[in-house]
Amino acid sequence: MGLGVAELRQAAWYPVASSDDLPFRHVYHGQLLGQELAIWRADDGNVNVWENRCLHRGVRLSIGINDGAELKCQYHGWRYANRTAGCTYIPAHPADAPARRITNRTYPVKERFGLVWAALSPEAPEPELAEAGFALRPMPVNALPEMVLTALMRRRLAGGAVTALPPLGAALVLEGTPGRASYFVQPVDSARAVIRGVVDTEPDLETLLAFNAALSALRDEVEVEARAIELPEPIVPRYEPVSVELATMPDLVIGRQATVRVKVKRRWQAALDVTGIELVPLSGHLPTFQPGAHIDLHLSNGMVRQYSITNGPGELLSYTIAVKREADSRGGSAAITDTLREGDVLAVSEPRNNFPLRRDALRTTFIAGGIGLTPLLSMARALQRQGLAFDFHAFARSEGHLPLGPELEALGGGVTRHFGLGPAETAAQIRHALGPHSFSRHAYICGPGPMLELARGLATELGWPDEAVHYEYFKNTHEIDTSSSFVVELARSALSLAVPAGKSILEVMREAGIDAPSSCEQGACGTCLTRVLEGEIDHQDVYLNATEQASGNVMMTCVSRAKSARLVLDI
Amino acid sequence: MAYTKPIAPALRDLWHVIAASQEVPMGGKRITTLFDTALTVSRNERLRVARNDDGSLLPVIERYGCIWTSFGSPTADLFPIIEYGESDRRNIIAGSIGVNVSAPRAIENFLDMGHFPYVHTDILGAEPHTEVKEYDVEISFERDEILATRCRFFQPKAALTATEGQDVDYIYRVPHPYCSVLYKSCPADESRLDVIAIFCQPMTEETIRAHLMLSMIDADNTDAGIRRFQQTIFGQDRPILENQYPKKLPLDPRAETPIRADKSAIAYRRWLSQKGVNYGVIPQQLS
Amino acid sequence: MAITLYDFELSAGCYAARLMLSILGVRYDTVSVDIYPGSDNRSEWFLKLNPEGTLPVIVDDGFTVSNAHPCLIHLAGKYDATDRWSPIHDPLVHPLMLGWFDFARRLTASAGVARTGVAFGGDADLPALQLEAHRLLRQLDEHLWFGEKQGRDWLVEGEHPTIADIAVFPDVTLSEEGGVSRQDYPAIRRWLDRVRRIPGFVVMSGVFPAAPAYSPLR
Question: What digits encode the pLDDT tens for the residues C81-128?
Fold first, then answer.
């Protein structure tokens, strides 16, 4: 009798909550056909319907925290972004960016008539739902969903018209109610349902009470019927296995393809020599990023340039970047600034997170020089969202040169702007901003090469350990000495390659058919990081810190070389 | 749904806890459940454990403040906890608490440190100090147990007397599929270790009674104070344990997403698989 | 002024007293009474304090008050300068508050007993207790839902929570420990968020803090 679970699953969209059930900063505990759901509304209004299980150890996300942009699991504090359900932070390992493909299962969602609708199968055909309507008080019933629908039909006003609303609904006038309503039966589980009624005109209190009383009476009647029969067992939910990569904890490698197509929604003058650009996906939303991440922009002239994402957490409808027109541009920033138009379509890579943000500091200091503000802005926004303490120092040639002024303003009180300072004054300000290192303080510094070198010296002087200061170089201005020649052995591929003078290890590997990832190819961004098993490395990058370089375990294959005759790489 | 398959030999021939000694005083008796089987424990001239279904008697010992029995032929004595026998120890059972969770999930939670700032907030840990630093795990085949050493976690207020935070060192040991022992530096005497143990009584695959045992060097606090602290900590874990799905621990490495901080949990799941444990777990599918 | 609370950490009734003390910002000393497994509440010294052998007990400058609801009335009456927590002088509110105390007692006798039954054993008829608890929670959900429709955030009419909310809160928020799920009661779940956001709110084992409330400023 009635529809089987399989048919019900494929069939359709069902209402799973009222819109009123999703106030800000709340997580609603729902369920559909045995599948538990964590449903929450982000501060931007977007409704998320996710499997109610953290991927880590299976704890219900419905007991977690909705902070407006991310859902935080109650067990270990893992954070999942609005829209994508991608994991953005794992507190147990604050120095690492989580494998971006740790993504919770999401379900498609629509809001209509004051109800929230979801489908378990992405192939469910688009529902035909009218726009208008007002939701009544939902009525949970411990009975088979089919029984509930039958009871609704049976209790209709004699002679009244019935319109079927498949798969489990009907529009009719229920006995004892003031008028016609559309009743949708949500099949929660094999023997549990919720009656979600909708009326055409906004109901007053009396009307709501009347409907509630009638539905309560109906519920009581149906539950008596249900107790008289043998109820089916609850539906056992299916837990999808985790991908092999995630189960074995390797690092995530993003290839060189630009897999995301976007359109330029907006461009504007963000500062005297800086263009702000907002990129939207051609459909859906964009991939999860972590604060500090950058994307590769693939230009029509064949060039590839890296830009930091400035967005705050959970903002995945568009990426906002800022492009500085470089005087000594190799052509990339000029191409963007001069020729990119609103409406243009481009390809970008998925975000790379080589500059991760620790969220376990008692206080974080951001020092931004010019366009270096971009990744730090995203980081500061994440800390602000979580109520974590930070100071933000923005250095620029003049107020007119300061990019993203209004966005900086929105960070609130911890922001100090420094304009037109010479090297000595800059040093004094940085020294003051850092101060002597104390327990659990971290600093993130991004800006022109000379400023970073200055900051390095000051940080060391002030006693900041290597692991507490994080530098992001947008470019490596050092002259790369490619005069050495040596051999690299690739341990996993069992290949031995000769690297002659004038060619980088990366180039040689590519020529041998190895698709090694890279981004800036200057030794600044960290993408081509490779583990080294043997040999003495000639570091020429600006990405690794002194400790990392001294360890001899890792190198940047795009610019670094070998001091010994041979290097063995873990590829 | 009662469990009907035979219990794996690795489980059947072990001692399993069924009561705290204080729950069965002289002349008293208690009905309880182990592996879906109702048992009666009574103490008259001697301690006695009998199955309720057929009246047959089961072997029984009393160790660490608890009563243990077995459905098979336990070959050895229970695993050792040397500290328990030291003369100046306070040996306390903080409680025997029923929880709707499987024994292996409860053990894994006991081994975990990453949850301290979120579940035992301002007691065992606090944001933003959330890092789980690298630690060592060994599965010892001679002793048949798992040992996690060099574990440390930053505690904002490690002892009642502390004014600022510091790393607290822990050692974790799993000498039995359903029991775990943790060792923590003793505030009163840094050269010695305080011992906190959880002995899980698997009543059904998805429900347990957790018997909490402490062996401390502590001249100052009352029994009630020590119990209160342990009950508070355990009570904080309860909503997490009871909201975990599936309730039985999945042994398939592809069931959940581990991180480096989960080394001891990964070792524990592998150890259970190797032993062929088949109660309270979802065994690995062999395809 | 010396206040002593005789307290058991895992007791829902003691939690109500601890909540009120914290919300009102009242300093107090705690004496732990080990109900389980120690049965200290049956000991001679405790029975002298409260012959019923129940908790919580507050001794306030020599004045002894036993059990959760009397403790709430005493604390609000003596320490609430705003007079909003226990508006006993309002004839339209006072009877309703007492009605909620009644409700809270029935909830303790069902959901509360189920909870201690699961944790500490005994021969409680769990299915019957859970059924009764669900009946009460359905009633509560309906009351709260219609309250929201009329702009009322709390159990009793008014802009401010009252001791009625504090009296009912513990057994509701701990109901799942007795096997009583709150999934079918979304209005209750929203009320639980609101209670947890009351300034001075404190957690207990089994209760987590709510997410900070939404404020439109970024």
Answer: 888 999 888 888 889 999 999 999 999 999 999 999 999 988 889 999
CATH code for the part of the protein at A260-348: 2.40.30.10
CB-closest option in C10, C37, C206 to B22 = C37
Kindly state whether B59 is in contact with chain A, defined as any CB-CB distance less than 8 angstroms.
no
Residue in the block written with tokens 């040397």: B82
Nearest to B98 among C9, C121, C176 (CB): C121
Lowest mean pLDDT among A157-161, A311-315, A404-408, C202-206: A157-161
Which sequence spans correspond to the domains of chain C?
Answer: 3-79, 94-196
C205 → closest Cβ in B223, B232, B242: B232
Contact A137 C145 (CB under 8 A): yes
Please indicate if any CB of chain A lies within 8 Å of the CB of B118.
yes
Classify strands A363-369 and A441-446 as parallel, antiparallel or unpaired. parallel
3-state secondary structure of A366: strand
pLDDT at A247 over 70: no
Element holding B41 (H helix, E strand):
strand B37-43
CATH number for the region C3-79 comes to 3.40.30.10
- pTM score, whole prediction: 0.88
Chain mean pLDDT for chain C: 95
pLDDT value of residue A1: 42
pLDDT higher than threshold 70 for residue A4:
no
Superfamily of domain B85-282: Naphthalene 1,2-dioxygenase Alpha Subunit; Chain A, domain 1 (3.90.380.10)
Sheet holding A486-490, edge to edge: A495-499, A486-490, A566-569, A529-534, A554-556
A and B: number of Cβ contacts within 8 A = 94
Q: Inform me whether the C-beta atom of residue B255 falls under 8 Å from chain A C-beta atoms.
A: yes
Options 2.60.120.650, 3.10.20.30, 3.40.50.720, 3.40.50.2000; CATH of A486-569: 3.10.20.30
Give CA–CA dist C46/B251, Å, rounded: 49
Peptide bond into B128 cis (omega under 30): yes
Flag if C32 and B239 touch (Cβ within 8 Å): no
